[in-house]
Specification:
heterodimer; A: about 325 residues; mainly alpha; ABC transporter involved in vitamin B12 uptake, BtuC; 13 helices; 2 strands; globular; disordered N terminus; B: about 500 residues; alpha/beta; 18 helices; disordered C terminus; binds adenosine-5'-triphosphate; binds magnesium ion
């Protein structure tokens, strides 16, 4: 009779070990190569200050990318994140202009921003689950609406004249580490735990893998989708508030084209746009890969037009590596 | 039978990570014969067919057609060589229509233009479907069809070409009665035309009915090849499982206990006026033709489809399952037909698929406890003998029958009060079937309600205490274990059609 060997994996050939390494570390390998390369080319690259700088630069989009990972895992997409950065930024900062002390207005500021994120995510999920509209089109529409809303609300002008202490949020440091970097790390740690160890995380993978099978297995798929879009909305709003603080103003044109960077980070990180496959660690590495490319090229004084081309090529090579491992 | 073989597969070896799927297997096929391929789940049958289809590269070995070596690097090569394949997990595009799927890749065009001649395509599709005695609408989308209907389309697809070799991987797993007869008729006709056919099935009766020769694989190795006329059932089974098996249907008769489920005047979808009761200590079978409404009935009880009206009582209390979650919480489980589409999350590991419906049992405060989860999954994997090097493997790496065991394990783990099994043994080998039957008996013994839908009539007869027959959405009769025979079931399963047929005659 057939024996059911349940236990260790036997790796049988050299090729398998290689594909195994590639599959787990494919993108990390690309990142490592990039880091070594830039360290050779520029003496300023591999310094504590510059590495912290990279993490600060990527923090805004990386935080959104954590939320986007959840969305993409369910086979969805959220294109409204960039516009949401702007909308939450201008709405939340306008609260700071109220004639009350910052200790009172700051919590209100946070609450406003987060509410905007919750509302946007809820609305996306509502159209997606209730009317069966594809996420792409729903969030494309919301992208346009929120951006227009941000311009309309501010009359096209930034929200200026914010309390000076407010810039601490995006510009402050704790133990030498930028606050946005710390927030980003906290978001990733939490997202990792949620995806790996909670029922909700498991449901996210299941819904993305096969929505109907997940429903028939007893998962409330609509609720999972709602939670996922709300999460992505809230993290976008959080980024919007951090960005506003760094610019010490609420800009209606903030976060333009962020959705592309964010989606690139997730997909470069190994997530499948068809859902069910991907990891939060991968997304982080993906965001780092793009951030390191930009930073390194800047240090090398590469012309910004050429930079764009190179970043595009890096993305192509990274996803190609990822596809090769699946062979 | 001509003297030289049509197809030779020589010394084929195929290694997957951690699994030697085929080990020096040699197989041949003559024109005009039906060569059956049997063996346990994971024996390597599908792997052999995939190599023949050009979709999977072999590690070692040689393929010859009409004595000449052939090299199949892609399914297109196989198609060129006149090899047709009916895949175990269908290769149909759900968004396309029946006709578009049947002619996929060789759409008829208007003259030499690039425009598809849809009229011709639909006619062609209708013609092949008619060969199979099926009146499916060629314009219907695959996604809207039942498993059995899709099986018919998959078969039709392989018939529409000019194949000299046709490999059928469990074509009958979802078929009953009429469809099965039609399939056999088509096979016999092709046999006369000199086509060589490879036929895979876990239903032993079929092997003797249709087969010329039979080859047994076990654990990736060739065990035995002989004429079916020289083999007997017992011998075949013992070659497959490697030991003697005395009986196929273990049956424990129990005292019928109290009522667990009661359906009163249920309506929904095509179902009309369904009255039904399920008792403790019995196994209830639902029989009927393809499209009779058996699956729909199970889905209604499970909250997967919308109930128009009627009452569902579980243990005497009315319940209102609006979603599968509601039903599961109330204590009802449904093992769906079509494991690939409605059962499994392919990208997830075996372990995660097993615990998916009952994560609560292995978690605390929303957090999954790894140890506990592993323990539960392991227990069921061993009980059902899921063949894999590791439970961390993706379900997609399992053979068809082993995938079925994963879904089974999932529902056993929910420990539901009432379990509905829709084709529980589809694609499962004789040895494991026997164990599943024991498990079902055990469930009944433990006071659970057990309902089985199966297109395998001998299985229903061997296993059930009571069989309820549906036809076109209505219950047309009920048979006790003692009364039930295949003929009686088929009669009831076609009764409404006949009645209506008569009426139409009179009016015409
Ligand atoms: N993609 C894959 N990766 C790893 N192992 C695989 C893969 N596909 C199949 N296998 C393994 O190869 C073995 C043979 O599988 P195969 O599908 O040929 O079995 P089978 O005889 O068709 O079984 P069944 O009756 O269940 O359909 C099994 O142990 C299976 O787990
Ligand atoms: Mg198989």
């Amino acid at each position: 009779m057939v024996s059911s060997v349940v236990g260790v994996d036997f790796m049988t050939s050299r090729k398998n070990i290689l594909s195994r390494i590639l599959s787990q570390y494919g993108i990390s390998l690309a990142l490592l190569i990039e880091i070594i390369l830039f360290s050779r080319l520029s003496p300023f690259f591999f310094t504590t200050e510059n590495i912290l700088n990279v993490t600060l630069q990527i923090s805004i989009t990386a935080i959104i990318a954590a939320g986007m990972t959840f969305v993409i895992l369910t086979a969805g997409i959220d294109l409204s994140v960039g516009a949401l950065v702007a909308l939450s930024g201008v709405l939340a900062t306008s609260v700071l202009k109220l004639p009350i002390p910052l200790i009172y207005s700051f919590p209100l500021f946070l609450a406003t921003g987060i509410l905007v994120g919750v509302f946007s995510g809820w609305l996306s999920a509502f159209f997606i689950t209730r009317f069966n509209v594809t996420p792409f089109i729903v969030t494309l529409a919301l992208m346009s609406i929120w951006r227009g809303g941000a311009y309309l609300y501010t009359g096209g002008r930034p929200v200026w004249g914010l309390p000076h202490a407010f810039s601490m949020l995006g510009g402050g440091r704790v133990a030498g580490i930028p606050l946005p970097t710390l927030i980003m790390l906290a978001v990733y740690a939490a997202a990792y735990i949620v995806l790996q160890y909670t029922r909700f995380g498991r449901h996210v993978y299941a819904v993305g893998g096969n929505q109907e099978a997940a429903r028939l297995a007893g998962i409330n798929t609509k609720r999972v989708l709602r939670q996922v879009y709300i999460l992505c909305g809230v993290l976008s709003a959080l980024s919007g508030m951090l960005l506003a603080s760094r610019m010490n103003s609420g800009q209606p044109n903030a976060g333009l084209m962020y959705e592309l960077d964010v989606i690139a980070a997730v997909v470069v990180g190994g997530a499948s746009l068809f859902g069910g496959r991907g990891s939060i660690v991968g997304t982080f590495v993906g965001a780092m890969l793009i951030g390191v490319s930009r930073n390194g090229l800047n240090l090398l004084n590469v012309n910004s037009y050429i930079q764009q081309i190179i970043v595009g090529l890096v993305i192509l090579v990274a996803v190609m590596l990822d596809q090769m491992r699946k062979r | 039978m001509s003297s030289s073989p049509l197809l030779e597969m020589l010394h084929i070896t195929k290694q997957y990570p951690g699994v030697l799927a085929l080990d020096d297997v040699t197989f041949d096929l003559y024109a005009g014969e039906v060569h059956c391929l049997v063996g346990e789940n994971g024996a390597g049958k599908t792997t052999l067919i995939k190599i023949l289809s050009g979709a999977l590269p072999k590690d070692v070995g040689e393929l010859r057609v009409n004595g000449k070596p052939v090299f199949l690097h892609s399914p297109a090569d196989a198609f060129e060589a006149g090899i047709g394949i009916i895949h175990q997990d269908f290769k149909l595009v759900p968004e396309l229509t029946v006709a578009e799927n049947i002619f996929l890749g060789r759409e008829p065009c208007r003259g030499r233009s690039p425009f598809i001649d849809f009229e011709k395509m639909r006619e062609g599709a209708r013609a092949v479907l008619a060969q199979l005695g099926e009146s499916l609408d060629p314009r219907a989308r695959i996604g809207t069809l039942s498993v059995a209907q899709r099986q018919v389309v998959e078969i039709a697809k392989s018939l529409s070409g000019k194949n000299r070799i046709l490999a059928m991987d469990e074509p009958s797993a979802a078929l009953t009665g009429k469809e099965l007869k039609n399939l056999f008729a088509v096979i016999r006709r092709m046999q006369e035309e000199g086509v060589g056919i490879i036929y895979i099935s876990h239903r032993i009766d079929e092997i003797f009915e249709i087969g010329t020769r039979v080859t047994v694989l076990r654990d990736g190795k060739h065990v035995h090849t002989c004429k079916t006329s020289e083999a007997d059932r017992r011998g075949l089974v013992s070659w497959m499982v490697g030991r003697e098996m005395d009986q196929e249907y273990p049956k424990v008769r129990l005292q019928r206990g109290k009522e667990i489920l009661r359906l009163e005047n249920l309506n929904g979808g095509k179902l009309r006026n369904i009255h039904l009761a399920v008792y403790q200590g019995e196994i209830l079978g639902l029989a009927g033709l393809v499209g009779a409404g058996r699956t729909e009935l199970a889905r209604l009880i499970f909250g997967a489809d919308r109930l128009e009206n009627g009452r569902i009582l579980l243990d005497g209390k009315e319940i209102h399952p609006h979603s599968p979650r509601d039903a599961i919480d109330a204590g009802i489980g449904l093992l769906t037909e079509d494991r690939n589409r409605y059962g499994l999350i392919m990208e997830m590991s075996i372990e995660k698929n097993i615990t998916l419906s009952n994560l609560k049992a292995v978690s605390r405060g929303g957090f999954i406890q790894g140890e506990k989860e592993r323990g539960a999954a392991q227990q069921f994997a061993e009980e059902l003998r899921i063949k894999t090097p590791s439970l961390d493997r993706e379900v997609s790496t399992l053979s068809g029958g082993n995938r079925q065991k994963v879904v089974l394990a999932r529902w056993l783990f929910t420990r539901s009060r009432l379990l509905l099994f829709d084709e529980p043994t589809a694609g499962i080998d004789v040895g494991v079937k026997y164990e599943i039957y024991n498990l079902l008996n055990q469930l009944a013994l433990n006071g659970k309600g057990v309902v089985i839908i199966s297109s395998d009539l001998p299985e229903l007869l061997g296993l059930c205490d009571r069989i309820v027959v549906l036809c076109e959405g209505r219950i047309t009769g009920e048979l006790s274990r003692e009364e039930a025979t295949e003929e009686k079931i088929m009669l009831l399963a076609t009764s409404v059609v006949d009645m209506r047929g008569h009426r139409d005659d009179r009016e015409a």
